[in-house]
Amino acid sequence: MPIEVLDSETTDQRLNQLTQALGSGMFVHVRSMLHDMAASDIAFILESSPPRTRQVLWQLIDQQHTGEILDELGEELKDTLITQMSPERVAKAAEGMDTDDLAYILRSLPDSVFNQVLQSMTAQDRARVEQALSYPEDTAGSIMNTDTVTVRPDVTIDVILRYLRIRGELPDATDTLYVVDKRDSLLGGVRITDLLTCDPNASVREIMNDDLEGIPVGMDDGEVAQLFERHDWVSAPVVEEETNRLLGRITIDDIVDVIREDAEHSMMGMAGMDDDTDTFGPVVKSTLRRSLWLTINLFAALLAASVSNMFENTLEQFATIAILMTIVPSMGGVAGNQTLALVIRGIALGQIGQSNSRWLIGKELAIGFLNGLLWSMLVFAAVWLWKGDIALGGLIGGAMLINMTVAGLAGACIPLLLKKFNVDPALAGGMVLTTVTDVIGLFAFLGLATLFLLN
Amino acid sequence: MPIEVLDSETTDQRLNQLTQALGSGMFVHVRSMLHDMAASDIAFILESSPPRTRQVLWQLIDQQHTGEILDELGEELKDTLITQMSPERVAKAAEGMDTDDLAYILRSLPDSVFNQVLQSMTAQDRARVEQALSYPEDTAGSIMNTDTVTVRPDVTIDVILRYLRIRGELPDATDTLYVVDKRDSLLGGVRITDLLTCDPNASVREIMNDDLEGIPVGMDDGEVAQLFERHDWVSAPVVEEETNRLLGRITIDDIVDVIREDAEHSMMGMAGMDDDTDTFGPVVKSTLRRSLWLTINLFAALLAASVSNMFENTLEQFATIAILMTIVPSMGGVAGNQTLALVIRGIALGQIGQSNSRWLIGKELAIGFLNGLLWSMLVFAAVWLWKGDIALGGLIGGAMLINMTVAGLAGACIPLLLKKFNVDPALAGGMVLTTVTDVIGLFAFLGLATLFLLN
Fold first, then answer.
1. Radius of gyration of chain B (CA)
2. Residue A121 and residue A162 in one domain
3. Quick one: pLDDT at residue A286?
4. Chain B CB contacts of A320 below 8 Å
5. Same domain, B173 and B139
6. Which of A163, A276, A370, B229 has its CA 20 to 30 A from that of A311?
7. Is there a single domain that holds both residue B311 and residue B444?
8. Residues 49-78, chain B: which have Cβ within 8 Å of A?
9. Same domain assignment for residues B429 and B299
10. B37 touches chain A (CB under 8 A)
11. Is position B218 within any domain?
12. A385 interfaces chain B, CB cutoff of 8 Å
């Protein structure tokens, strides 16, 4: 029987079918549809549904799959659903979850519920959780699982093959068995595929890869992701830094999540949004979550207005200046944002360090200046043609040159400085930059105009 | 001998050491340092170096590793280096490359060089390339490799184990053997780990997973990445759509690249940059690459200025209006960009379809209106306090309410409309949105001011 080829439209179609079935009140039908779906598909459908549909769907889901589904959800939605669950249901869901995800969920619970959930767990689960909670968020420890399969260096491959046959199924994404000594120190690894192709009489020591490097448990998860990307790993062992003791392993599926989250963080951050923002979240909650950024922007806009305010005299006498004054900040903002996006990505990829940041700043300054020359000439020509005033063209051109040079410099320096002071450049960079280019742009144009036109 | 724990500072330190060694002209030392490094680390160091350092490093690299290193580089840098290489060297580099990367490199060559490179290849390599070139870019076919290991359903596991031992090493990231019939149609898969744990006398048919779904060769690579993420796959088979014939397989390392590129595309695109922009590229080339976006922005800024121009009378009489007129577009731009980022991410993740886009637009419109109410009151109060003019506060508050409501609507509709017309929302969305919020913001504020103050 030939198997079916994947249909790319499947998920959207399913979503449509579910929505229609819910709309016509066919709850039994919906329940049986949900029963046949994988946890990851249910999670995707929950993510893509408006709040009311979500509530109904969540009621209709089999209780025993709750844990798996929660595993796959984005943070904001996960938090929302968990806070509505009873402690007993959370504890029950916890049974089916990976240790790293369990730790995440427990961290987000209020203290009282946290303790209740812990009480309702079996002793074994409680031990797993306590261990997982001991590693800080966003480190290798927090995305690690403890399901490693270890072997000793002096046994033969044949013994291992027999052991595995008795042991039965291996954990998902197991591509390497780890070789450890008596004190659990990592000595190397044996690839599963090598077990199949090598001589069964060889010893582990003979075929093991002793270049295998352990990831220190405290390493930042973004750095771990870079290592996975660079070395095309499927899984990697995690060790205690001082003793090299094997603590667990990280698998590529968790790394994919880290990469996705970090990349979304940069993109959403530059627009002033959290990367875990729920696309289909409720209105009032969403409104409040976006307020902080708008508050900051109001101050930035008032600051820019107060710069214009300094030149009230000039604006009173020349309405044309007022008409043209938004052009210079706008061009500076766009040019600065280009540099900013490039530098933020470079920082996120770990490309920018001590040895090359000075060169990069110099390069962006040069680009800013060249851009400034180019666009000051163009805007000079445009304004001269439009307003028939060559002096006005010269003024706006001069202001443009100043502002775009500053934009290049600021776009490169601001994220590097923010990083030095441990402020997230993706989040704060855009707002700081736009404020700088607005203020400098207005100051340059209105200042030059006051200097040359008012005398 | 215990193996070393990975040091997170390693790469930056190495880069520093290399830069210093190059600075003092110790080329022999640099060459031997490069000799000991993995291709992926050399690629990373090339990416992180200014052009001059790159040139020197590139000369010092072992010729036989060129292909592997090119594999790992970003597109812009890859193109730059390839155009400087002789066709013979490109052909030689091609020998060490994966088929999918080879196809990419050949696509980017000028026709004359392309033919020269093809001539200098062995017949076998030429066949591989021609096959790879037959699949369009950004499809499953273009990121697929042909190194699948296939078995027949009626043999026993024991036979397979013996076959693998004779065959020797398996391709990287092989976690599944594919089961095919006589006509190479995909029937299912046998996991490598199951080979180790199951009864050797069982037949393939008994232990194979026949739910395994083949990816159609023409599927968009972003959709393939979503499937990998949702199902935590390490590799997946690619099939011809009609016949279900097995053509190759996609591995997680290529998917990680797709995810990284797509996410960077959204982030860089919103700032008007290509995702393959080289952070340390040369100045003049970088300046030119950024011009298009600035040209478009100049037109947008002139459009906004021409709106102000319509209200020259008002601006002539009230300088305060000119001072305050940048606040409304600024707040609208930030609010609209928040919605835009959310919707672009939702589209990229495949969350937004027919069934929920109307709900989403309604939600963002509601958030825009609520935000508008909130901020119109705040800005009303701020302007009243600052300028001591209650009417002026009312005017700017009214304009703010209009502009922020429009911003919410535009932020949701623009990317959805652009997608409908097959324009990339990540690239064009931000510019279209800012133009809308600038024009509507100025029009609302200056229009209301003209209406109420000029009479």
1. 29
2. no
3. 84
4. 312
5. no
6. A370
7. yes
8. 49-50, 72
9. yes
10. no
11. yes
12. no
Q: Output A428 or B63, whichever has higher pLDDT.
A: A428
Res. A310: pLDDT tops 70: yes
Range among B8-22, B217-231, B258-272 with highest mean pLDDT value: B217-231
Percent of chain A with pLDDT over 90: 36
Please provide the average confidence, as pLDDT, over all residues in chain A: 86
- Whether B355 sits inside 8 A of A15 (CB atoms) is yes
Query: Which residues neighbour B97 within 8 Å (Cβ) at sequence distance 6 or greater?
Result: B67, B68, B70, B71, B105
Q: What is the pLDDT of residue B4?
A: 44
- Residue A262 counted as domain residue: no
Q: Could you tell me if residue B2 is inside a domain?
A: no
Distance CA B294, CA B266 (A): 18
Considering the domain boundaries, does residue A26 fall inside one? yes
Closest Cα of chain B to A115: distance in Å? 32
Q: Does A412 touch chain B (CB under 8 A)?
A: no
Q: Is the pLDDT of residue A377 over 70?
A: yes
The mean of the pLDDT values for chain B is 86
CATH classification at residue A422:
1.10.357.20
Confidence of residue B239 (pLDDT cuts 50, 70, 90): very high
Give the pLDDT of residue A418.
93
Given a cut of 70, whether residue A67 has pLDDT beyond it is yes
Tell me the nearest-neighbour CA distance from B92 into chain A, angstroms: 23
A91: distance to nearest CA of chain B, Å?
A: 25
Give the bridge partners for A245, in sequence order.
A185
Any CB–CB contact under 8 A between B44 and chain A? yes
Report which of B258, B33, B44 is spatially closest to residue A223, judged by C-alpha positions. Answer: B44
Pairing of strands A215-216, A235-239: parallel
User: In whole angstroms, what is the distance from residue B383 CA to residue B394 CA?
Assistant: 9
Residue after which a domain boundary falls, among B108, B143, B178: B143
What part of A 216-245 touches B (C-beta under 8 Å)? 216, 219-220, 223, 227-232, 234, 239, 241, 244
Provide mean pLDDT across the span B320-341.
Answer: 92
Instruction: Please answer yes or no on whether A260 and B259 come within 8 Å at the CB atom.
Output: yes
Q: What total of structural domains would you count in chain A?
A: 3
Tell me, yes or no, whether A245 and A353 share the same domain: no
Residue B74 belongs to domain with CATH number: 1.25.60.10
Least Cα separation, residue A168 to chain B (angstroms)? 5
Cα B210 to Cα A2, A4, A259, B274, distances in angstroms: 8, 10, 31, 42
Q: What is the distance between the alpha carbons of residues B402 and B409, in angstroms, rounded to a whole number?
A: 11
Q: Which of B213, B232, B350 sits opposite A4 (nearest CB)?
A: B213
Which pair of tokens denotes residue A136? 């800080």
Instruction: Looking at the structure, tell me whether residues B344 and B449 fall in a common domain.
Output: yes
Q: Where does a domain end: B251, B274, B308?
A: B251
> What integer is the mean pLDDT of B209-237?
89
More confident residue, B445 or A130: B445
- Contact between A156 and A200 under an 8 Å Cβ cutoff? The reply is yes
Q: How far is CA A427 from CA A330, B280, B426, in A?
A: 20, 23, 18
pLDDT of residue A186 exceeding 90? yes
Q: A83 versus A410: which is more confidently predicted?
A: A410
**Host domain of residue A354:** 290-453
Interface list for A 414-443 with B (CB within 8 A): 438, 442
Distance, in Å, from the CA atom of A174 to the CA atom of B8, rounded to the nearest integer, reads 25
State whether residue A207 sits within 8 Å of chain B by CB: no
Task: Report the residue of chain A nearest B189, measured CA to CA.
Answer: A3
Record: contact A263-B259, CB cut-off 8 A: yes
Size of interface A-B (CB pairs under 8 A): 422
- Is the CB of residue B28 less than 8 Å away from at least one CB of chain A? no
The amino acid sitting at B263 is: A
